[in-house]
Amino acid sequence: MSDGSPRPQESSFVSSLSAVQMARSGDLLPLEGVSSEDRNKLFMQLDRMCDQLKEPLEDLCGETQQETEILYGIFVKTLVSILDRDIKEIEEFRGSTRKFLNALSRRFPTAMVELSEEEYQDYYNEKRRQYGLTEDQTVIDLMRALLESMVDKIFMIFQAFPKVVPGIVGALHFCFAYNNKAGAMDDIQALDEPAIMAFSFGTGKKIGPGLEHESLTGPGVEQPGQMNCGLAKVVKDLLAVRKMPVFAQWEIADALMYGEDGAPPDKAAGYYEYDTEKYPYRETWDGHDIFKAVALWPEICKEQGMTLKQMGESSSIKQYYLSTQGVVNFFQSSWRLCPEVKPKSLIIVAHKDHLARCVATFRAQSQVGRVMSCPTSLYPDWEDVRCTRITGYDPLSTQEWTMSRSNFLEKEVPWRFAMAISLLEQSKYYNHENKYFADLPTDLTTFADLPAELTA
C-alpha cells in the first residue's frame, strides 16, 4: 500500500494546477466506469470538507509548536490511512461492503499505533517537504495535496462500495471534529425544559482503598481531578444563567458540590460499600437537582459477596467502567424509571476535545428534542484549576491518555473512527452540519443519491 505519495507523473501540488481547480473547470481525467460529472462531484465533496475543516483545525494547537506538529501528523496520517487503500484490497472485498468496513476498521488502528509522538511530528514535516509546501501553507493545504494524490483510489472505492464514500467522509469529519462552533448564550433562555448533561474528563489521584487497589474507580477511591473541577465551574456558571437539573458523571457532580477533594470520606465510602443512603445518586445543591452517573461495580461486588480486594484484583472490573456511552445509558435508564425528570432539551458540558463525541453519542441514543453544546465563553481559564493554559489538560491526570492533547488525540481518533464505522454498518453516517449520525438513503448507488449536505 502506498502512503499518499504523489505518482511520478504528477507535478507538485504547489507548482501545478490543483485537482480542485480542475474539478471546478470540469477537466479531471476520465476514470473507467465513472462519469466526469460524478468524479467532479466527489472531489468537490472532499474539497468542501477541507473548507469546513480549515478554521477548526488550523486554530487547534498544542502547548508547544512540537505538540502542534504532532497533532497535525495525527490528522494527516489519519487521512492517508483511511483513504489510501490498496487496489488489491478494494478488489478483494468488492461486492461485500461489510467485509471491507471490517477490514478497514481493523487496519486503521494498527496503522496509527505504528508511530510514536515524535514520529507523528516527523511524518507531518516529511509530508510537507514531499509535497513542496511553503512556510505559509497549512495542514489543510497538505490535506488537499494528499487528496489530489489519492483521488483515483477514492473513486475506485466508490465504484466498488457506493455507500462507503459518504460514510467515510462523515467518519473523517467525526475524526476531525475538534474546536467546533459551540452554542450561544442567548439560546439558553429559549430552551424548553432544559437540563445539563456533563461528561467527565480524566481523574484525580487515588485515595482510600484506591491507593491499594488502583483498578478501583469512583468516589472515595479517587479524587475528581482538576479538569473536572474546571468543568464543574462551567456547570456552576450555567446554573447562574438559568436554573435547571444537572445530570453529571460523579467527578463533576462531586467537584461542584464539595470541591476538588470530592465528597467527604465517610460519605464517599457509601459508594464503594454500595450504600445509596450514605452516597445517594440524586442530591440537591443550591436549589438544583443533581443526578450522578457512577460505575456499577460496587453493586456487582455486593451481589457476588466479593471483597474490595477481590474486585480490585479481578479483570472483570473493567467491564463496569463508565464510558461516554455508559453515561448516556445510565441516564437513559434513569429516565425510563422516572420519566418525569427527563428533560425536553439538553446542554452538553464536556472538555472541548471530547465534546463532539459526547454530542454524537447522546444524539445517537436519545430522542431528546434539542441538544446544544455549552457556550465557549463559559469555559474556565484552565490555569486557574492547575491545567495547561492553552489546551486545558491536567499533566497529573491518572488516566494517561488525558494528560495532554496529543496523548488524547492519538487514542480518540481511532476510537471515533471505530464508532463511525460501526454506525455505518447500521446505514448511518456522521452529519457534520448537525453533529449527529443520520440515516443513509436506502437506494444510494450514484452521486444523485448522496445526501444533500455532502454534495452541496
Helices and strands, with pairings:
Blueprint: H1 19-25, H2 36-58, H3 65-83, H4 87-92, H5 97-113, H6 117-130, H7 139-160, H8 164-175, H9 185-188, E1 194-198, H10 226-241, E2 246-249, H11 250-258, H12 265-272, E3 282-285, E4 288-293, H13 297-303, H14 308-313, H15 324-337, E5 345-349, H16 352-365, E6 370-373, H17 405-424, E7 428-431, E8 436-439, H18 452-455
Parallel strand pairs: 1-2, 1-5, 2-4, 5-6
Antiparallel strand pairs: 3-4, 7-8
Compute the number of strand runs.
8
Encode the helix/strand succession as letters: HHHHHHHHHEHEHHEEHHHEHEHEEH
Cα(first) to Cα(last) distance is 32 Å
Look at the helices and sheets and give the structural class. alpha/beta
Strand content: 5-15%
Number of helices: 18
Overall mean pLDDT? 87
The major beta sheet can be summarized as: 6 strands, mixed
Percent of residues in helical segments?
A: 40-55%
Question: What ranges have pLDDT less than 50 throughout 5 or more consecutive residues?
Answer: 1-31
